[in-house]
Each structure stands twice: as structure tokens, then as C-alpha cells.
Amino acid sequence: MDKTQMESPSQGKTTVYYHNNPGLLSQGAAFHWWDAAYTSLHDHDYYEFFIITSGRTNHVLNGACQELGEKTLCLIRPQDRHQFTPLPGGRCIHINLPVTREKLEQLCAAIGTQLQDILQVPQRQLLLEDNDFAQFKQSAREINLLRENGSPETYVTMIICQMLINALVILKKKCAGIASGAPEWLNQVLRRIHSPEYIACQASDIYRLAGYSPPVVIRGFRKYTGETVVSYLTRAKMDSAKRLLTSTDLTVLDIAGRLGYSSVSHFNRLFHAATGTSPQQYRRGQRAGNAK
Asked: What is the DSSP string of 131-173?
């Protein structure tokens, strides 16, 4: 994100517009490196993937702050508000891949999926496998070389689109409950977590389903999903909540109960942390969008 793209702040945040980015305006997708330690709280009118290539940073996403490190891939939606803040003595560099909704829909169609399916992935932030991470960095180096040699920008765009497709495929695998390179017991657990009959389970149920001790399961989740058991399970529950709010007339109380939450206020807090809005506001917004 180029600092010159920032518009005037509104209600404590800044909106970044795609028409200020020449690559987005002409090709629908762009690429650049970002190494500034700090950004203001902002959102965009386009989608954005970022991949941390070195260092660590604090990332604020919809009010929740998490420390991120090398190999982290994250998808930011237009409605998301996020910010990078520095860690003491640390410096973070990441690849930035902004893309318009129209272009992203075209790329999703090219791999036989829909953008809505990608957006329903419970984990839009994950740790890349070594080979995937190396491939993204190699593509970034190719882009730099092409630009240094004055090659046509259309060649650069092809590599950007290839990077975006790779990111979409990785997220799609997560949607299917597949962790690349993970043992079969873990993939079975992940698939169950995403199924309706297990979506109300708790962390203690996950340990039982896995058939291994909690430390083994915790290490497996960390290594192959980049998440704790609780955070992965919460993301899956919030994804199910969004689908239920969009496709049914169930009350928020009923949805919370289906997902295993006895406290509606606790469910509301988790949903707001995940989406930046309340369940009721999310439902109204989705229905208003579908009515257009």
C-alpha cells in the first residue's frame, strides 16, 4: 500500500481507493513490497492479500490484535479495518497483492470456484508451507526483475495473477478442511470441525476426536494450520454463523445455541471480533446486498 493512496480520515480510520492505484485501475491487480513499520487504521474498496516475508508485526484486524510472523498469508476484505503496528526492535517486510472484486471473481472462476466460497473459509489467515512460501518469494523476485528490465507490464500482471490463484487454491484447501502435509488424523478432525454435526463441539471434544493427548493435538494445529485449537474452532463457528445469518431466519439466540454457545453476549463479542459488526447488522447488510 503506497502512502500516497491514503484519503482523508473518516471516523478514526482511512479508506484506500482502487482508482488511486494504476495497476488496479488498468489490470485489476497489483503488486508491491511494504516495509514501513506502521500504517494508520484503514480499509479498502478492494481485496488484498499480504504475505509476511521477514520479521514480525502486530496486526490489528477488526479490533482484534495478533502478532504475525514470517510465512503468514492473510486475505483482507473491503469491509475489514486493519492496521500494522511495530513490535519493539522489530522490522517487518511483506508482499502486498491488491485486487479488485471483478478480477478476483474471474480468478476464482478460473479454478472452478466462487468468490463467496473463498470468503466463507473460516481461516483467512494462515501459515504457509515452506514450498508455497518459497514459490511466492520466487514470483516476487521475478516481478522485480521484469520491472528492472523494463518488460511490458502485462508480463508482470500474469505473474501477479498466478500468485493470486495460488493464494486462492491454498485458502480453498482450508475450506475443505485440508492442511497440506498434515497427518490424516488431523485432516479428519478438521473435516469434522467444518461439518454441521460437530460444529457445536468444544476444544475438549477436539482432543477426544483426535485420539491423541492435548499437547500432541495443540502442536499439530500450530504446525499445520498456524492456529491454536480454540482459535481455529472459533473461526469455523463464526463462518457457520455467517452462513446461518445469511441463509436462514433463525434468531441470534438459536444460532448461538447451535454453535455451542450458552451465552449470547459471548457469541456476539466473538462475532464482532471476527467481522467488525454485530450478528444483526451482518444479517441486515447481507440481505440488503442481495436485494440489489
From this structure: HHHHHHHHHHHHHHHHHHTT--HHHHHHHHHHHHHHHHHHHHH
